[in-house]
Design a protein that fits this description.
The chain starts with a strand and ends with a helix. The protein is of the alpha/beta class and 310 residues long. The chain has a single domain, classed as Alpha-Beta Barrel (TIM Barrel). α1 crosses α2 and α6 runs parallel beside α7.
């Protein structure tokens, strides 16, 4: 079984244009790093957004079929408190994500995305789980809050009540979002105060993965997804594989999930390349590293399936 544990449904009006342009600036800077020249980030966004847009899940499922992916965990993202209102209310976005998962009930699993500072956020989460069938919670602290703040706790308590996990973004993020809120260590209070709550530390904190691992090594309710590591995989494969080997040594494969952070990262690294890079790794750059078939099978999907009960 292959499961993408981290994928965003995206459309115009779902995310403020300022964030999309920030992503475009990041991509153009990376593409032009050798020459110092950059294409217009806004134009790049205008060109790519039609290809990224998918509110029904149909495009995603078609791409899953082509890549051989069995299931995908989907969610929106709530940046409004940092970027301003994007155009479509976050409640409507979550409802459409839930409808996509119902439409493709054997392929898609939906998580509820919310900024915990919103009035009635815990009640919305309860409705999303009970009425819409959503299977977890997604926080993105880079919109201006720390995951250990008091207003987050009622939502963690709801997750405990309904026995669903929470995904918390850790690591860097383009402007106008703020990286300082998303260091892995800020998840530690949550893991300590809710030791039975499954917490997925998204992206293993990117280059702060050692901090994330130090925390997870003593908090067994912390899990990792390795989505968002495609650029490191493309440019420094040995660093990526050594990170993954160390994480598996410390936590085992049942607490590690493969994912894409699509559709954005799929532009920079096609999903079939990223999938093969983990499922059939080329370890010529780091011959001291190896992975067992059982480890790969587990992290590619069996671990996430066990966590959410599919």
């Amino acid at each position: 079984m292959i499961i993408d544990s981290h994928f965003h449904l995206v459309a115009e009006g779902w995310i403020h244009r300022d964030f999309m342009v920030g992503m475009g600036r990041m991509a153009t800077a990376f593409a032009g790093r050798a020459t110092g020249e950059r294409v217009d980030a806004g134009q790049l966004v205008d060109n790519l957004l039609p290809f990224l847009t998918d509110t029904t899940g149909e495009k995603l499922v078609s791409n899953m079929d082509a890549a051989g992916i069995d299931r995908t965990c989907i969610f929106a993202v709530d940046y409004e408190y940092m970027t301003g209102f994007p155009g479509v209310p976050i409640e409507d976005q979550n409802r459409m994500v839930a409808e996509a998962a119902k439409r493709f009930h054997d392929r898609l699993v939906a998580f509820f995305a919310i900024d915990p500072r919103r009035e009635g956020a815990a009640d919305m989460l309860e409705r999303a789980i009970e009425d819409w069938g959503m299977r977890g919670l997604k926080f993105h602290p880079t919109s201006g809050y720390y995951p250990y703040e008091e207003f987050c706790y009622p939502l963690y308590e709801k997750c405990m009540e309904y026995k669903v996990p929470v995904i918390i973004h850790t690591g860097s993020q383009p402007a106008p979002l703020k990286f300082r809120f998303a260091r892995p260590i800020y998840v530690d209070d949550v893991a300590a105060d809710f030791p039975d709550l499954p917490i997925i530390v998204a992206h293993v904190g990117h280059d702060m993965w050692r901090e994330a691992l130090l925390m997870a090594s003593v908090k067994p309710n912390i899990y990792f997804d390795i989505s968002g590591w495609q650029l490191a995989f493309n440019n420094h494969p040995a660093e990526f594989y050594r990170m993954l080997r160390r994480v598996l040594d410390e936590l085992g494969p049942w607490r590690v999930f493969w994912g894409t952070d699509g559709p954005y990262l799929n532009v920079m690294c096609p999903v079939d390349v990223w999938l093969k890079g983990v499922k059939e790794p080329d370890l010529s750059s780091c011959p001291e590293v190896s992975f067992t078939p059982d480890e790969i099978d587990t992290l590619m999907g069996n671990s996430f399936a066990r966590l959410i009960g599919v």
